[in-house]
Design brief:
By secondary structure, this protein is an alpha+beta fold. The protein is built from 6 helices and 6 strands, in the order αββαααββαββα. Helix content is 45%, strand content 15%.
């Protein structure tokens, strides 16, 4: 586990969205966890990848490429350029079928390990697209840049966090109502 705590307001989303959520708006403006190798180390640890991949400049560079590709795809799902960029990231790895004493399995393989974290995020996004593409959402709060996978029963979640953005929206509506009176 990383010695540095993860400072982001929303963690625990599927890995592709968690990678997008390495950028957020905080008290001091826009924040970016991946502005350094130390931030990459925190993100790898937060996603259980720290024991498989090294936090170094090459891995940071390739993870940022994957983040930009995924960000473009999430913002413009049918955009052919966005699709090609994610597909390019996916071209840096593959799944190898395995058989162990525990049974059949799959293991990702990379010619260049520095593509591993970004590839895993891109591959994870394919799973979300297969499962429920309509539940990949951006937070509805106008000042928020976070994304989430809506797991609510009826699929109507609007906020990255009800405690943060949902509460801000409620407070804004309340303020507007009381100000007008």
């Amino acid at each position: 586990m990383s010695a540095t705590p993860d400072p982001r307001p929303l963690v625990g989303e599927p890995v592709s969205l968690d990678l997008l959520n390495t950028r957020w708006v905080g008290d001091g403006g826009r924040q970016d966890l991946l502005d350094s190798v130390d931030g990459l180390r925190v993100w790898l640890a937060s996603n259980g990848l720290a024991d498989r991949f090294t936090a170094d400049e090459a891995t940071l560079e390739r993870t940022l490429i994957a983040r930009e590709a995924l960000s473009t795809l999430v913002d413009s799902p049918g955009d052919t350029t966005a699709i090609a960029r994610v597909d390019d990231v996916l071209g840096h790895g593959r799944i190898r079928a395995t058989l162990t004493a525990q049974g059949p399995g799959e293991e990702p393989e990379f010619a260049d390990l520095s593509w591993g974290p970004g590839w895993i995020a891109a591959r994870g996004h394919l799973d979300l697209l297969r499962t429920a593409p309509g539940r990949i959402r951006a937070c509805a709060h106008e000042a928020c840049v976070l994304h989430f996978f809506d797991t609510s029963r009826n699929g109507t979640r609007r906020w990255c966090s009800m405690a943060i953005c949902g509460n801000r929206a409620k407070a804004s509506r309340h303020y507007a109502r009381t100000r007008d009176n």
